[in-house]
TrEMBL record:
Signal peptide: none annotated. PANTHER family: SIROHEME BIOSYNTHESIS PROTEIN MET8. Pfam families: NAD_binding_7 (PF13241), SirC_C (PF22440). It comes from Fictibacillus arsenicus. GO terms for molecular function: ferrochelatase activity; precorrin-2 dehydrogenase activity. Pathway: Porphyrin-containing compound metabolism; siroheme biosynthesis; sirohydrochlorin from precorrin-2: step 1/1. This is precorrin-2 dehydrogenase. InterPro entries: Met8-like (IPR028161), NAD(P)-bd_dom_sf (IPR036291), SirC_C (IPR042518), Sirohaem_synthase_N (IPR006367). It is an enzyme of class 1 (oxidoreductase). GO terms for biological process: siroheme biosynthetic process. It catalyses: precorrin-2 + NAD(+) = sirohydrochlorin + NADH + 2 H(+). Keywords: NAD, Oxidoreductase, Porphyrin biosynthesis. It comes from the Bacteria. Its EC number is 1.3.1.76.
């Protein structure tokens, strides 16, 4: 599987099933500002509440074959193997589909994720062991402190200045210099560096 990070804002997502597994996926999809429709005979109370708050649309019935036509991304998470398999069979080859109980029938896997602002660390075992993914995620949570969030903002700001203001030939060295670990914890060093960078822009 080819790992990519996809922008789901404003995209139509259809989730089949309304149990705890569907809800876990929905919670993360909502953070991505996807437009979510849940089609499920019944649904856990969290999904019902999200529907009442107009944060998603829950249609309370069995899935039908044309429910998925307009979806950019589909999650098949009913508790029935044959229903999930039928959904995978119906979608067209340009749609993204995750099948919660039969990975091989879908074309993407949902990883375990650690977020530190712009830093996104995602772990997958290619379906071999979700439990190991969770364990590795916890190790990464320990290794990558919350400091990374503001550090990434600093890196982003500096890189934007470098890309916009510094001639191409000088960029690579500056971009490499930026990843010096000294900037991770020392906010004053970040401030100093940014000032130097802004000065450089006028002399180059
Ligand atoms: C990471 C995470 C993302 C998420 O779902 O948000 C995720 N599973 C999580 C939790 C979890 N899943 C399971 C348990 C029980 C313990 C265990 O069995 O180990 C727990 C633990 C718990 O619930 O605490 C059981 C399980 N999972 C799958 C099957 C079906 C099968 O294997 O065929 C079964 C057996 C069902 C049964 O018994 O019938 C399938 C998949 N689960 C995946 C992802 C994909 C592979 C990821 C990878 O490549 O590693 C994949 C292939 C499909 C997919 O969903 O894309 C999320 C952790 C979020 C976090 O906390 O970070
Ligand atoms: N991928 C994962 O991370 C993972 C983890 C654990 C379990 N699973 C698998 O995911 C599936 C769902 O787990 P769960 O605990 O949420 O199950 P669940 O039984 O709690 O919920 C199933 C949902 O599917 C709905 N449903 C059933 N048939 C339907 C149909 N024809 N049309 C529409 N909705 C229908 C039910 O109303 C219910 O809301 C199971 O097959 C389980 O083995 C996947």
């Amino acid at each position: 599987m080819y790992p990519i990070h996809v922008d789901l804002s404003g995209k139509e997502v259809v989730v089949a099933g309304g149990g705890p597994v569907a809800y876990r996926k929905i919670r993360d999809l909502l953070k991505e500002k996807a437009i979510i429709t849940v089609i499920s005979i019944d649904a856990v109370k969290e999904i019902q509440e999200l529907h009442e708050q107009s944060k998603l649309t829950w249609i309370s019935r069995e899935v039908k074959s044309n429910d998925f036509e307009k979806a950019f991304l589909i999650v098949a998470a009913t508790n029935l193997n044959e229903v999930n398999a039928e959904i995978a069979n119906k979608v067209n080859e340009n749609q993204l589909i995750n099948v919660a109980d039969q990975t091989q029938l879908g074309n993407f896997i949902i990883p375990s994720v650690v977020r530190r602002g712009k830093l996104v660390l995602s772990v997958s075992t290619s379906g071999a062991s979700p439990s190991l993914s969770i364990l590795i995620k916890k190790e990464l949570q320990q290794m990558y402190s919350k400091d990374y969030e503001s550090y990434l903002e600093f890196l982003f700001e500096c890189r934007t200045i470098i890309k916009n203001e510094i001639p191409k030939i000088k960029r690579k060295a500056l971009l490499t210099e930026l990843t010096d670990p000294v900037f991770l914890h020392d906010v004053n060093k970040r401030y100093g560096y940014k000032k130097t960078l802004l000065n450089k822009k006028f002399v180059t």
